[in-house]
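tmp note - Arsenate reductase
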Amino acid sequence: MTVTIYHNPKCSTSRTTLQLIRDAGVEPRVVEYLKTPPSRAELAALAATRGLSVRDLLRTKEPLAKEMALATAPDEAILDAIAAHPILLNRPIVTSGKGGRATRPPETVKDLL
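out:
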């Protein structure tokens, strides 16, 4: 089973989630999305993962999300915004053969392993 984590190494929740995955004996595919941002098409495919939605991908606490009024924006506008500004991607997002989710709190990743 392939596990992918969209990871920000500066985020303690993301680091904890990555460690929980590794502690379970899984070496995930790590996407440092600020260094290698996913394309809009990749974001749309990610949102189509069972258990995820476009809104799950949005980091609503990010000041830019408020500036851009994304809380009430349609899905297409959210995808455009995240593609243009990867800092808006919620973290961490984890996918596996069991689906996907924004893993806050980190322990929720166990359902995907």
